[in-house]
Amino acid sequence: MVLQQSIGTLLKFAVIPIAKVLVMCGLGLLLASSYINILPAPARKQLSKLVFSLFLPCLIFTQLGKSVTIEKILEWWFIPVNVIVASLLGCCLGYAIALLVKPPPQFFNFTVVMIGIGNIGNIPLVIIGAVCRDKGNPFGDPDSCNSNGVAYISFGQWVGAVIVYTYVFQMLAPPSATRSHIMDSEIPGESVALTVQGIDNSSESMLLHPDYTEEDSLSVPLLVPRSSTAIHMAMARLGNSFSQTRFEDIFQPPVVASLLSLVFGATPILRNLIFTEHSIFFFLYDSLNILGGAMVPCIMLALGGNLVGGPGSSELGLRTTMAITFARLLLVPPIGLAVVMSADKLGFLPANDKMFRFVLLLQHTMPTSILAGAVANLQGHAEKEASAILFWEHILAVFSMAGWLILYVNVLF
Questions:
Q1: Tens digit of pLDDT for each residue in 77-112?
Q2: pLDDT of residue 121
Q3: Residue 205's beta-bridge partner residues?
Q4: What is the DSSP pairing of strand 203-207 with strand 192-196?
Q5: Taking CA 127 as the corner, what is the angle to CA 122 and CA 133, rounded to the nearest 5 degrees?
Q6: Average pLDDT over residues 285-296
Q7: What are the residue boundaries of the structural domains of the chain, listed by start?
Q8: CA torsion sign, 135 to 136 to 137 to 139?
Q9: Domain at 2-174+247-412: CATH architecture
Q10: Dist. CA 108–CA 115, nearest whole Å
């Protein structure tokens, strides 16, 4: 009965948030076009830096700091764990897909990230707001529905920020910036690389001789299908990523804002000074909250502007683009459903809290994180490819998310 009454409403909830995303990206594309040219490439890069350094940290601090307490940290512990599990399983799937479809070598890491890292922030917030605004929503009172949903989503955002600006930041580094570090560590057995010659797309795999130098060609890791070599290469890449990560790479502005919000939110004295209305420093919270509200539209405009050459300007190729989109929208959500249902049966989740479970499921269902596109813009690598993937995913998510949301209501109720 609940499902029959909710199908039309959920279809609206699934379509409208994605439609809003497409409208904002469309405006960014218009502003970046040659007819208006308000958002040329340098302006889009500066806008992404502004989002990264100011707007996103403000959004995280105000939303998470106001919602978190020590008791809630202990009760909601599975939310950040779910984000980590979702990223880990998603990247494992992305790794397998990348080995299968064999994208251009400079986009191997990009393929893994675009499949593995979902949007756990702005789009879920928009969806929760749309769902709870309707008095006939299946989660009850609109006010408590919205406040609980926003708090749950915000509590997971700090982990997502850490993942994006550490792991994703390293994975999306331009090949020219990482090629001198890729083969630094010796791997038992054989070392394999791909030599990219010239500027065309032709490539040739070869075994590296000990005397092989970087001046001869651009070296990019080639992951061969043999399990032992693939495991060694994966471990070496992971270890090399951590070894090359500097202190300032980890403590990026969004990560610092996440940590500060946890400290201020969980400390009663600091919490009352900033997050309590009519307190002496509440004006500071209000100011940061206004700045945080600019994060979503600004990043949407920048990403839309990157499509000025059209989604067809991507160098990924049709097969890789289809594989990323299919895996992210249709293969990742069933894995997430299994994770959440297993956690529920094991007693890891608060009893009888449907919104809590709904938010966990949303964390596995979203298109690729928009922040991954922002990082690509910051790194100056695969910007058009990221925008093309986000473009197609958000169009097709209108249909996929409608189906998943209806399924989730059927499962939860």
A1: 999 999 999 999 999 999 999 999 999 889 999 999
A2: 73
A3: 194
A4: antiparallel
A5: 125
A6: 90
A7: 2-174+247-412, 179-243
A8: positive
A9: Up-down Bundle (1.20)
A10: 11
